[in-house]
Specification:
The protein contains twelve helices and seven strands. The protein is α+β, with helices and mostly antiparallel strands and 265 residues long. A seven-stranded mixed sheet has the order 2-4-3-1-5-6-7, sandwiched between helices. The longest helix is centred in the first third of the chain and has 21 residues, at 14-34. The N and C termini lie far apart (71 Å).
């Protein structure tokens, strides 16, 4: 009865309510992140042990609380290892273009100052190359960098620096070319790498009929502000991806209009 009477006099202020709401929001976001994966079972198990530990501490069971406390301390390191992919995805979200664009204008201003200025892009040459590749049913994957320099992606391929040329782009994706497999990276109006390996999206919203080129295009645009252009080897269909969304069956003039909106200031 004494314990229940003490509960009646618990004082809560605005910060306490805000604290509870933020913790609830954090738990919900973690649940959304790992829902449908094996990690959800591990999370429930660790959360259960944590709440049992808190209960044991509240009941002043010293020996058991020390054992569970030591397990929780070591378990935190194990948690970082087990949930490494999920934690990486969670942290990448805060640097994603969608998050930055939803931030207040003052925050966006700071990021514009930090990032380098964008160079004009030779859109006509790129569109011409894509149209020719489409007419020949030659598969192609081009990544157009904006503020993100894509250094890690560039390191996976053959690095060089060349002016943008429709003929050069077509020759890179020629079927007998040693550099045709993988992506060509265009940064600061220069072709800087070919045969690059892109991350494949794990999104289940992608049409199952789309191949690895399209999935790689979505993957590179999920966590960067880059744009990806794809030419299907089977159909010659042109597609582009932005912010993890792919638009299929695009005409050459539509692609030019899209690129002009993205790169002409």
């Amino acid at each position: 009865m004494m314990y229940l009477s003490n509960l009646a006099f618990i004082q809560m202020n605005f910060l306490d309510v805000l604290d509870i709401l933020l913790v609830a929001l954090l738990i919900y976001e973690i649940y959304r992140l790992i829902r449908g994966t094996v990690a959800i079972n591990l999370f429930i198990g660790i959360a259960s042990i944590y709440f049992i530990w808190k209960l044991v501490v509240a009941l002043q069971m010293e020996l058991l609380s020390e054992i569970l406390g030591a397990f929780i301390g070591v378990g935190f390191i194990a948690l970082l290892i087990v949930f490494q992919p999920e934690i990486r995805q969670f942290l990448l979200f805060f640097g994603s273009p969608a998050f930055l664009e939803s931030a207040p204008k003052r925050v966006q201003f700071l990021f514009r100052k930090i990032n380098r200025e964008e160079s004009p892009l030779d859109i006509d040459k790129i569109v011409t190359a894509v149209r020719h590749l489409s007419d020949k049913n030659t598969g192609a994957l081009l990544v157009l960098s904006k503020k993100h320099d894509l250094r890690q992606v560039i390191d996976t391929g053959e690095k060089f620096t060349s002016d943008i040329s429709a003929d050069l782009i077509e020759s890179l994706f020629f079927k007998n070319s040693p550099l045709h497999d993988g992506a060509v990276i265009i940064r600061e109006n220069k072709i800087v790498a070919a045969r690059c390996i892109l991350p494949i999206t794990k999104s289940k919203r992608i049409d199952v009929a789309l191949g690895l080129r399209h999935r790689a295009a979505v993957g590179i645009t999920e966590n960067t502000d880059a744009l990806a252009l794809v030419v299907s080897e089977e159909t010659g269909e042109i597609s582009y991806s932005k912010r993890g969304v792919i638009i299929n069956n695009v005409a050459a003039h539509q692609l030019k209009t899209f690129l002009e909106k993205e790169f002409v200031f």
